[in-house]
Amino acid sequence: MTDSGKALPQAAPHRVQRAWPWLLLGSWLVMAAGQLWSLQLEAVQKGELCSAASSQPLWSGGVQR
């Protein structure tokens, strides 16, 4: 037990230094998902998106009548 107590404090800053880009990416993805959810919610509240009252099909499947 000569060096076990000294190696732990030096390893912790290295972990944080390697992890910060992933934390930044994760937080950015969470914010982007929140913004997309907010836009979808706003569109539904305005009546622009509603699957129950669709006046035009989103995709006709290539069949024209």
Q: Helices, strands, pairings?
A:
Elements: H1 4-46
Structural class: mainly alpha
User: What is the succession of H and E elements?
Assistant: H
DSSP strand (E) fraction?
under 5%
End-to-end separation: 82 Å
Sheet having the most strands: none
The value of Rg in angstroms is: 25 Å
Weakly predicted, low-confidence segments: none
What does the overall shape look like? elongated
**What's the helix count?**
1
- Count of DSSP E strands? 0
Helix content: 55-70%
pLDDT averaged over residues:
76
Brief summary:
The chain has one helix and no strands. It is an all-alpha fold and 65 residues long.
Structure overview:
The radius of gyration is 25 Å and the shape is elongated. The N and C termini lie far apart (82 Å). The chain has 1 helix and no strands. 66% of the residues lie in helices and 0% in strands. The longest helix has 43 residues, at 4-46. The model has no long low-confidence stretch (mean pLDDT 76). With 65 residues, the protein is mainly alpha-helical.
